């Protein structure tokens, strides 16, 4: 028999970055309604980006500094290590793996993403980085002079490889492409970026795929598709992440290939259920229907969803950006940033900064990358909004075609 049902005016499934801001959104309007946050995570909501960046390169910055203090700031009740397994939208009931039941007036679904992994046995020496627990495991196996294998050419793989090598760890980085970020950056930037890793001592295995791993005692063996076997003291996987849609699908919420479908107020197809963060399929004011697995989106959509849950009717009309930084490079991206598009560079004077403009086959602007270019992003949002043609931009900017 389930124990007594716990009721909340506002109930969140997921205690991540969107949930933290949704709590603030609710409290900006309703200071009294009860708020419960149910999270599978072992830790209170925290800044996830620090797990692959700041915690590795700033000795003054500790795990505690990443905490948002969501519970204290927003008078919330937090249930950690609690996995929700079912939502009943008709009865307004949520059930957990332990058989606990919660009822709600209004529900937020903010379950984020789960990282992809590789074939091999469960082991503390193998981490697909997403949570603080994962970060702690990497810390445990990656002291100075250990050899760590990192697989993946996305931001997680690249960031953690940079973080580790700056802690005197020997790093082998396995990437499926020719160079780091060759699917995003033009060749000259991808080369510059890769050189930072080589100079720092990272050994790069390009054009290779990791197929499986095995563990033996305190060693990991990684098998690459060309027959190479790498041996290390730990393995970090940055193979991309899959959005957590299972709960929504089981509850018959409308979904599409991008995620849980929400309207302009971030409401799902079920009454009294909103969604925010990585899992939503939403209509972006500039880019059209989108899914965005980014901090800026999690924060902004979370806050808007929270406000709407508390009774405001506000549209989510923010076009989010993605950012990353490693060594002395920082970059931000708006819209479609893919080297399969037609790319034009504006090289900034007096710095090594560049702005890359990405055009489709009709020469209409689709995305902008700011590489070491600290310029107000709103400026580029406004440009992107106008969907300019290459010839319009060439009249006002000095652009050079790049591959
Ligand atoms: C290491 C790392 C570095 C990153 N760096 C950057 C960066 O530099 N720039 C950037 O823009 N983005 C970055 N991101 C992405 C960014 O952190 C995410 O887009 C953001 O956290 C998404 O917020 P969210 O609330 O949707 O999901 P999350 O923050 O992932 O939170 C989801 C929460 O839901 C919980 N949950 C899932 N399923 C259930 C369930 N069934 N029951 C209960 N709880 C559940 C999880 O435990 C978690 O607490 C990074 C991500 C990682 C992992």
TrEMBL record:
One Pfam family hit: Pyr_redox_2
According to its UniProt entry, the protein's GO biological process terms are: mitochondrial respiratory chain complex assembly; programmed cell death
Ranges of residues in domain FAD/NAD(P)-binding: 9-302
Q: Which UniProt keyword terms apply here?
A: FAD, Flavoprotein, Oxidoreductase
This protein's GO CC annotations: cytoplasm
MF terms (GO), sorted A to Z: FAD binding; NAD(P)H oxidase H2O2-forming activity
The cross-references to InterPro entries, in alphabetical order and at most eight, read:
FAD-oxidoreductase/Apoptosis, FAD/NAD-bd_sf, FAD/NAD-binding_dom, FAD/NAD-linked_Rdtase_dimer_sf
- Which PANTHER family does this entry report, sorted A to Z? APOPTOSIS-INDUCING FACTOR 1, APOPTOSIS-INDUCING FACTOR 1, MITOCHONDRIAL
Top-level taxon in the UniProt lineage: Bacteria
Q: Which SUPFAM superfamilies match?
A: FAD/NAD(P)-binding domain, FAD/NAD-linked reductases, dimerisation (C-terminal) domain
Query: Any idea what this protein is called?
Result: Putidaredoxin reductase
